[in-house]
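Hi there, hope your week has been kind to you so far. Do you reckon you could talk me through the fold, stretch by stretch? I've dropped the whole record in just underneath, so have a look:
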Amino acid sequence: MPIEVPFVRILIVDDDKAICDYMQTLLEKDGFIVKTMSDPTLVEDEIRSGDYHVLILDVMMPKLDGIEVLKRVRTIDTDIAVIMFTAHPNLDTAVASMKLDAVDYIKKPFNVDEFREVLARVMKKKGLARTPEEQLHKIIGDTIRAMRKERELTLKQMSRRTGLSISLLSQIERAESSPSISSLYKIAVALDSKIHDLFGNN
């Protein structure tokens, strides 16, 4: 059964329509589902109803600046990954963005490859898979964590049982490391299960 990679939904908010169009074309080509908005006052309602994973937000906009929009978004959604971008970077807006848990702050105009790297980093941090391999790592990590907690085992106890470091076990659970068959075998034995049980229901 093929592993389904979930769609990632991105909302772009910038009063410059040309930038919105350019970014929408770029990101849709990369396989994302993208919506753009030029009016920052409508963002709250869109976030409530849109089920977005990533918000790309311009800092300098008329009516409402990006920091104020982000403050309002955070009262609705504390988990959405937010990337701020601006043609006028300064320390105050950078600090304000980070305090509101923006995951990155980018200067316009930006390099496309660098932007893709930022997006990939954001998605990894938020556990959003982009390839079947990444999705498989996420399934394995989630399954191992659930089984470990079901058996009321700590990472330290798992480390003792498997001979694997706490750090590696934690990375496998968070899908930040690609586990070897040998590691999976040790984890399965420690959890008193079979290797195929670690692959979830796929």
Remarks:
- The chain has nine helices and five strands.
